[in-house]
Write the structure tokens for this entry.
Amino acid sequence: MAKIFESRKNKIIELAKNADAELKNLQIADALRHFYWAQTLLRSHPDASNIKMTSDGGNEALLITWIPIQINQIFANLSVNVNQVEAKDSYSNYLLDIRYNNQPVRNFDYTYWGGQDWSNIVSAKDGLGVLELPKSQSSADIRLKCEYVFEGESAIDMELRDVMLKLPEIPYKNCYLKVGAKTTATIPNILPTNVSTSTETNATNNTTTVRPIAVAPDKDAIMKKVISAISSKNYPLAQPLFSYEGYSIFQCLLQYGNAKILKDVELKYYQFGESVICRSIPMSFSFKSNNRTFVEDVVFYFDKNNKIDNLTFGLSKKAVDDIAGNAACSEAVRMQLINFMENYKTAYALKRLDYIEKIFSDDALIITGRVTKVASSPEFRYLNNTIVKCNQQSKTQYIKNLKYSFGSNEFINLRFADNTVKQSGKSKTVYGIQIKQEYF
């Protein structure tokens, strides 16, 4: 029993430290989840009143009082305002500007009162949230509730899951937020902020040019038709605008939840080799059976024949900035990395086994694993008291397992953060990326 509770103590401290770091990065959903999970496990610990954590600054905090203070401070520093209202046939679509300490949140989960019941969980991204209300309901009555329990996701840790099932939920009255009136705040576009007006490189023995296009009336005309087809749900209307493969991806994307366009934005176009990239249309994707809505930015690719031949879900602003701001590689290479990561993210979301198979070479070594924290004792003499449990797979095994996972899950949603890009010491054309992957 002593070993069990010592291990639980380590887990509590680790969760609290993770939450503290995530709060600094404006990952509000992650911070609330890990603070609450740490508090839940703390309530089950016999020495709860004495467990302390040392912060990065060297300050010591008693977790039993520090954690609830942090959670309430998060609620107090959150602000939600209406950015745009769009009237539909039977309801109104509200676009929300969500901020923490006046900065757009990187992620945030919430539900809202729809007049008769609470909505499904909505996952906001880069300060952009959405809600739908009947036209009969006044905007002054909007009530929003922060998600902080994340009970459905606790199954990743059976010890945590067991404790959550046995203990009553901790009520936080401050989790209910008032939605402010319409503002003129600007919700940032997800664009590579460090890409200059003209950049050329010879990274792959071929000159690659990344150039923002000042005027693209032909592309604008095509995108207007695509937006109209999505908004009216008359998807075949857009088919002539796509290549064969592009329309196939378009259909898969529209089947990824109940797809809706959130707002009109000024589209930006970038020359990328022979392709032109259009960034990006903010959309929501809802999965009612799983009680979840995601906000995503959709990026369109035009081929040399002016047909849309690819679509991807855009990276978060933080992930784009991490890559685009890396001075170790040229700006064109940074755009190539962004392009690859967005295609990689989308392949998992749309369950494109064909694309994922192309990524890995036939003799690829694929290792999946997890890190287990263990208590310090003579029986556990490991560096940093961690055990890494690895599962080594061949490409064939990995694809087989992935196919099963795709078939057994209604949806897969990836989010990337904390990117580090490094150039190979042996080859100037080979790059490695270490990236934190969050998934639902």
User: Anything to note?
Assistant: Residues 185-210 have pLDDT under 50 and may be disordered. DSSP finds ten helices and 21 strands in the chain. Residues 199-350 form a domain with the Nuclear Transport Factor 2; Chain: A, fold (CATH 3.10.450). The first strand starts at residue 52 and ends at 54.
